[in-house]
Structure formats: C-alpha cells, structure tokens
Amino acid sequence: MNVSNNKHEHLDVLVSSHQPEPSTLKNYIIGFTSSVILTMFAYLAVTHQFAGKWVMIIILAILAMTQFIIQLIYFLHINQEFAPRLKLIVLLSMLTVVVILVGGSIWIMNNLNGRMMDTKAMEQYMNSQNSL
Amino acid sequence: MIMGTIFASFWLGKLNLKALPPNYIQMGGAVMILSILLGLLLFITVTKKWKWLYREWLTTQDPKKIGVMYILVALGMLLRGGADVALLRTQQSISVGHNMGILSASHFQQIVSAHGTIMIFFVAMGLMFGIINLIVPLQIGARDVAFPFLNATSFWLFFAGMILVNASLVLGDFAATGWLAYPPLSELRYSPTVGVDYWIWSLEIAGVGSLMAGINFIVTILKMRVKGMSFMKMPMFVWSVLGSMFLVAFAFPILTVCLTLLALDRDLGTHFFTAGGGGNMMMYVNLIWAWGHPEVYILVLPSFGIFSEIVATFSRKRLFGYTSMVWAIAAIVLLSFTVWLHHFFTMGAGSNVNGFFGIMTMIIAIPTGVKIFNWLFTMYRGKIKMDSPMLWFIGFVVIFTIGGMAGVLMAVPPIDFQLHNSLFLIAHFHMMIVGGVLFGDFAGISYWFPKIFGFKLNERLGRLVFWLWFIGFLVAFIPLYILGFMGATRRLDHYSAGLGWQALFIVAAIGTVLIGLGVGVQILQIVISVRDRKKLRDTTGDPWDGRSLEWSTPSPVPVYSFARLPHVTERDAFWVAKRHKIKDKSSYEDIVLPKNTPLSMVIGISAFATGFGIVWHIWWLAVVGLLSVVVTIIVRSMDEDTEYTIPASEVKKMDRQLRAEGGLR
Predict the structure, then answer these.
(1) What is the domain-level CATH number for residue B451?
(2) Is CB count within 10 Å lower at the N or C end of chain B?
(3) B220, B226, B230, B250: best mutation site toward chain A, by most A Cβ within 10 Å?
(4) Are B589 and A4 a contacting pair at CB < 8 A?
(5) What is the DSSP secondary structure assignment for residue B269, as one 8-state letter?
C-alpha cells in the first residue's frame, strides 16, 4: 500500500508489535466477573464486620490491590506484550504518583487527626457554646 | 394545582422564574451575555455563514482549526473574566466605611469565584490547549494528532463546560465559595442554591475533556514523531508539553473524583466532607490541592516551552543547556506532586508535615531557577531582536522572578501563617499565572500568528499592548503585596475607613484600567492587522528565521501540514537544513486525513444537557444527555469510513503552487 501517512505507520507499529489476543471477550468476562466477586467480598466483609478494625483494613487493602492488578491484566492488557521501556516508565511513574499521593494523604490526615480534640470533648465544648 | 406542580417539577426540576437575576446589576450581566450570544447568531445568519461555519469549523477534526477555536473561546472568556475584575476592583475601591459599594456581599463572592474558575479553566487552559493543538504536531513533523476524534471531543467538552459556567449568569447563581469551593461552605447546608452545582459540573465536564486531551498529546508525542527525531532532538516546547500532559493524565483524575464526591454529598446526602456523619472536610482540601498544585505546573510548563523557543529564535543561538532544561522539566513534573500541602499549612498539621512540604516547595524553585538562567545564558552574546514575543519574555522574567521569590518566602510555614489568605498570596499567584502563563501564551500567539493565519500582527500596536499589560500589571499587583502585609485578606467586599487601605486599592484599580486598555489595544491590533493583512503577509513561511520544523511549512499551514515529511538528523532541524542548504529529496505520497464529523459536537451538546440537568435536578434531561453520549460513541465506533485520501499527485500540485506563490525555501 502506498499510504504512508506517518500517523498510520506509527499506529500500525503500535498495534502489530504483539500477537492478536486469542479471545478478548473471554478475557473481559474473566476480568469483569472476578472484579465483581472481589467487590462483593469487600462489601460483605464490611457489612458483616467479621474481624477487628486493623484486620479489616488489611483485608480490604489486599482485596483492592488484587482487583487493581486484575484490571491491569484483563482490561489494560499489561502482560500481553513484551513491554517496551516506555511502558515500563509510564507504569513506574504512575506507581510513584500513587504512592506519593496515597501515602502522603494518609500521613497528612493521620497527623491531623492526632492533633484533634476527641469527639466527646468537642461535643461538650460545642454544647457550652450553644447555651451562650 | 398540585398536579401542575408535580408536572413542572418533573419537566423543569428546580428551575422556575425565581432563577432569573434578582437585581439590576445581575440583570445587566445576563442581558449582556444574552445580547452577545444573540448578536453572534444574528451576524452569522445575516452574513449567511452557517454552512461555512458548520463545514469548516464546527465539524472539523483538524488540530490546526481546533487550536484556533480553543484560542477564540479562551479570549472571549478573558473578556468575561476581565469584566468580573472591573466589578471587583470598583467595589473594593469604593466600598469603605459607610459606602457599601455597588455589589451585594453574596454577589461579590460569586463574581470572585467566577473570575478564578473562568481564568484558570477556560482562559489559561484554553490558550494552552489551543497553542498545543496548533504547534505540537507541526514541531514533531506529524500531520495530525494520534486520536483526532478524541481531540475534537476534548474541545467540545471544554466548550460545554464554558457554556455551563456562563449559563449561571442568566439562570440561577454561581458558587459564592471561592474558586475551589471548600466544604463545609460548599456543602448543601451552607450553599443551598445551584451555584456550587454549576461550578462542580462545568469543571467535571471540562476536566474530562482536558484529561482526554492530555492522553492524546502524550501518545502523539511518544508515537508520532517524524523519523530521526529522537527524544533528545525534540524542540523544547514539545518536551515541556510532554511534561505538562503527564501531569494532566496523573492529576486530573483526582479532580474528577474530588468533584464527584462533593456532588454525592450535595445530591445524595453522603458524608465524605461533612463534619457530622464521620466525614472530614480537610480531606477535600487535601485532594483538591493534590490536583491543584500540579495544575499550576500544567499551565506554566508549556509557557516555559514557548519562551524556550522564542529566546533561541530571537537571540539567534541554540538554546543554552538543552539537557539541563529537559531534566529541569522532569524534576518539576515529579516534585510538583510533593508540595501540595503548602496550600494549607494553616490547617493544623504537625511541624513534621509542614516542615517536609515547606522544604519540598523550596526545592522545586531550583529547577525553575535553572530554566531562568538557561534563558538568560541563551541571550548572552546572542544577536537579540527585540520583537514583541521577546518583550513578553523580558516582562515574564521580571514578574515571574518577583512572584517566585514571594513564593519561596511563603514556603516557610511560620511566614505562611502570617500571610495565608492575605492579598500578599493573591499578588504572588497572579504574578505566576499572569506573568508566567498568560504572558507566555501571548508571546506564543504573537510568535506563531503568521504561521497559522499567514500574516504577522501589527508590531507597533503589539509593543503598546505589552507595555500597557506590563506596567498595568505591576501597578495593579505591587499594592496587593503591601496590602497583604497590612492585613487585608482575599475576597474582601467591604472594609472600614480607619484601616487606610483605600488609597492602595485605588492604585490597584488604576493598574486594572491600564490592563483593560491593553486588552482594548489587543483587540484593535487584531482588527488593524486583519485590515492590513496584504501588507503584513508572510510569504516565506519563516518570518522570524525560525529553528524548528513548523517554519518549514508554508504560511498559513495547508491542511496536510507537510507535503513531504521532513528528515531530522539534529536538534533545531530546520535551522540546520537552512544553514547547510539541505534540500528535501523525499517523494510525495498519498496523505490520509480524518473526515469531518459532527459527532464530537453532539457529544459536547449532550454533556452540556447532562450537566444542566443535574444542576437543576431535571433528571430526565440528565439521563437523555448521558444516553446520547453513549449512543454517539457507539455510532462513531461502528463507522468505518472516517478518513479520506489526498492523492500524491494532488499534494504535489498544491505544494508546488503554494511554494511558487511564496518563494519558500
């Protein structure tokens, strides 16, 4: 074909650098079903409260991370091609940003909570203000 | 009667006659925006331009045209935001002591929020995306962006958000909460009207558009560079856009989530940010600034890129310290995610937290300083031509350095405790955003104007514009530093006479008048330049003796951009080709371009309907709008016939003709 608009050249490289996936629909169904199941587990875990606070937090975090990885694999097809360096860089920078933001937010909000009045004392104070 | 009410509330939601403006000043705003709209529609109808407008502009997929539309919308919004400023400054110079000024307190707060929202999202972002659309594909030797339909859709979502913000002038009110709408004030309990909803949904829609545009340009830059252009041979503007778009891709999802949570609080009664029910309003502040600080660099990085191009071109030297510039951008991209807490030092976190973010803030000034010095060293011993783009650069260095040093000052938490929310802060960030972002965009527009439209802007008026803006800006904002030290806070609609602030507020208002004159001359400059376009015509395609690939094309750029794809072997490819008289020997080829389609516009209109429906609780409209978006996407995905081909012979004919007319190299 004589068509060599640069856009198509490059996008063709993008598309043809890996083998066509065997059954995309199957992958999407696996990804979707397992995501639904993991979400259901998380929901039931919260509604039934079958463990202590910290165990629950760890369980939920593990469920969330598992789902995150499943979505990367089944929806974003992260493992289906030999990853070029650029993709690795993008993935790593994404992880860096997520770690900074999530870690930073937890640090900041915990630090703030540690310096807050406890709820009872606050309610007492607010009631005393209302009566004025 | 009751049936009638139910009927009305189904079809119209919360919308009723009370939504119309309550007083004369607000009525004036509504009348003005409506008459501008009607005037435009009438003008197009009388001049019979509808067909042309539809065919050439509204349905286009060409980034060169989409860029022009972005810039036109942004300049229109600059006038809207400027009209807001005129009201604010008038109020602040006369509302002293017994005089209550011309605006009610609530209306004043609404105007402040609208000013901030519009200037950031619809002026600065619009100008930035406009210039990126125009220039990035040309600089990397590409004929299009990676995803043309997505690109047009981004523009139409931006447009839908813009219309939604302005609809608040006519129906209902706008958020009276400041431009970032902190809870608890922005929660339903304290802001029961539709104002905050307008704010949420216009930004939600425009923000999704920005996110898609960000992804689009990342892919374009990574995948569509012309043969031979390795990363370290890209023009600096392309590098800066790559950095900025990475920030868009990583930061804008935070904004979307944050706004959605606030909307859930308001519409479904959740408790993410309410004090009761286990929510935490500081989490909102934390999240919105985790987006908001990168946003500052999203806006300013492309301006840095524009200045890098301009300084090299007008000093006729290659850019000093290219590699260090690239690493400075990379450092800024990373560090911009580690400083967000400096926007809320006063929230009450411990000294470890404040200290960490204070130090990170000081560190981010280092790569920025590296860039300033690189530009100055580029000028050193260059043959500098002081055309208006270069004047904007000089103005930028002066203002940005003053503002930047004020920023480093406020990075020290104890000092910030004194200056937080004062006019000192207002002066600081206006110096960064006007002096840094807007001056950069203006410089870029006057620099690339001949490339896009085929004629230069009137240079004498261009200089006048610069001086009016530059002097007006200093007169308007230096007093705010002093007022900030004297204790004046932001969003102040009234103060007592004994404070002695009025004189400084009046000086600031005079500065605003000067800037207003600058804007007037800017409009005049465009009108005069269009009138004299034959005289100002750029026949060479290279009016400034440029360095990068966009100057190798004829001006205005033909629809296919490059008749033959250029070869790149070095940095500043076009400069090298000119100096070594390298002739392009590659052959002409068939060029495939995207066909026009109205579907991007349909998505924009549907998104507007959804937003408007949610704002007024007209749920049927919201559902219809959302369905329409989904259906349009499906229809578009089924369409196989989205491109057309210009045969090689045709390209050759057009190219020969254009080059014969213009004596191109």
Answers:
(1) 1.20.210.10
(2) N
(3) B250
(4) yes
(5) -
